[in-house]
Amino acid sequence: MDNQYSEIIDVPYHHVIRTRLGLAPQPPIDEEHEDAHYQGYVWSRIRLVLREPFSEFWGTFILILFGDASVAQVMLTQEFTNAPGGKGFGEYQSVTWSWAIGVMLGVYVAGGSGGHINPAVTFTNCLYRGLPWRRFPIYFLAQFLGGFCASGVVYANYVAAINNFEGDGRRTVPPMKKATAGIFCTYPASFLPRANMIVSEFVVSTVLMFVVFALQDDSNYGAGVALFPMGMFFLVFAIGASFGFQTGYALNFARDFGPRLMSYFVGYGHEVWSAGGYYFWIPMVIPFLGCAFGGLLYDLFIYTGESPVNTPWIGTKRLVQGDALPIAHSSRHNSSRQDTRTPSRQNKRMSSRQDKRITRVEFV
Fold it and tell me: Which residues have CB under 8 Å from 221's CB, separation 6+?
C-alpha cells in the first residue's frame, strides 16, 4: 500500500493537470528542459501545463497576423499613386504569398503541438491518425483565440488607414464598393450561388488535407520534419493562386470565425453574419467536411499504414458493431517521453522508419 501511495505522490503535478486537460502527461519538450531548476517558477509551471495550447494559439496568431495584414495593405492602398508602380502597395499575389508564408511560419511556431493551427486538421488527425479526441477541445479553443486576437492587432494597426479609406467611423461589408470587412474574414463573390460557395470551400479543404497527409507519409516520399513547413507554404500558395477568388479559400474555422467575430465587435455590425445570404456558416462547417473527405481519399487509395480505413469493411465494421478503433496510433500520444519530445529530438532518437511514421503525423 505504501509503495502505491509513493508512486502516486511521485507523479509530477503538471502531469496530473495536463491529463485532466486532455493532453499527454509529459509536455513536448526536451528531457533536460523539463527537469531544469527554473521549471519550479510559477510561469514555468503554467507553460509546462499549457505548452501545446500556447503553441497552437501563437501559431494561429502568426498565420492570421500576416494574412490579414497583407489584405489590409493591398486593399487600403489602392489609391496610393505614390506607391512603386503607382497602383498601391501590393496586388492579389501579395496576399497569396503572405497567407502561404503565414502558414509556414505558424507551423514552425506551433511545432511542439503538431502545428495544426486549424481545427479541421486537428479533427481529421483525431479521425484518422489516432490523436486523442479529448485533446480536440483545448486545441480548438487555442486556435480560435489566436485568430481572434491576431485580427484585433491588425485592426488596431490599420484603424487610421481604414478610416482614411472608408471614412471616419464608417464600416461596411462586401459587396459595398469600399468595404473593408474582407480584411479580416472571407466573403463570397456577389455572383456566386450557395451551392458553389459550398463546393468551392469543400474542394480546397479536401485538397489541403489530402496533400497534408501525403507530406506526412514516410512510406510515400514525405517531406520530413524540416521540409514540412516549406511543403505547406507551396500547398497554401497553390490553393490561393488557383482557387482563391470565389470564396477567399478560408480552409479554417479559426482563420474565419475568430476574425469575423472581432470585426463584429469593432463596429462592422450584423452584416458580417448576413452578407452573402448568411454565408458565415460555410467557412465554419465545410472545412471539417472537406478535410475529413481528403483524409479519407488519401487513406483509401494511397496510405498503407494504420488507419480506420485499413480495417474490416474499410472502417465501417467498427461503426456497425461499435468496436473500438483497433490501431496503435495512441502510442504516439501516450505518456512515453519519447513520443512527446520536439520533432528534432524525435528524429535523433528514432531507430526505425516505422517509428518515424507513427510519431510525426500532427501538422497543419
Answer: 214
Contact assessment for residue 27 and residue 58, using Cβ atoms and an 8 Å cutoff: no
Q: Three-state secondary structure along 54-103?
A: HHHHHHHHHHHHHHHHHHHHHHHCCCCCCCHHHCCCCCHHHHHHHHHHHH
pLDDT of residue 364: 38
Instruction: Give SS3 for 120.
Output: helix
User: Any residues with CB less than 8 A from the CB of 36 and at least 6 apart, and which?
Assistant: none
In the DSSP assignment, the letter for residue 112 is G
Contact 186, 293 (CB under 8 A): no
Distance CA 216, CA 108 (A): 15
Please report the pLDDT score of residue 319 as a whole number: 59
Take residue 199 and report the three cell numbers written for it. 463546393
What distance lies between CA 268 and its chain's CA centroid? 25
Q: Quick one: pLDDT band at residue 353, thresholds 50, 70, 90?
A: very low
Neighbours of 306 (CB within 10 A): 20
**Of 341, 258, 315, which Cα lies nearest the Cα of 30?**
341
Cβ-contact 146, 258 below 8 angstroms: yes
Burial label, 347 (beta-carbon count in 10 A; 0-12, 13-18, 19+): middle
Provide the 8-state DSSP code for 305: S
- The 10s digit of each residue's pLDDT in 312-351 is 887 776 656 655 454 444 333 333 333 334 444 444 444 4
Dump the DSSP string for 280-344: GGHHHHHHHHHHHHHHHHHHHHT--SS-GGGSGGGGHHHHHHT------GGGGSSS-GGGGS-HH
Residue 258 and residue 119: Cα distance in Å, rounded? 12
In the chain, the DSSP E strands lie at none
- Whose grid coordinates read 502568426? 62
Handedness of CA 80, 86, 89, 94 (dihedral sign): positive
Q: What is the mean pLDDT of residues 2-16?
A: 61
The greatest distance separating any two alpha carbons of the chain, rounded to the nearest whole angstrom, comes to 80
The 10 Å Cβ neighbour count of residue 86 is: 8
Do 67 and 249 contact (CB within 8 A), yes or no? no
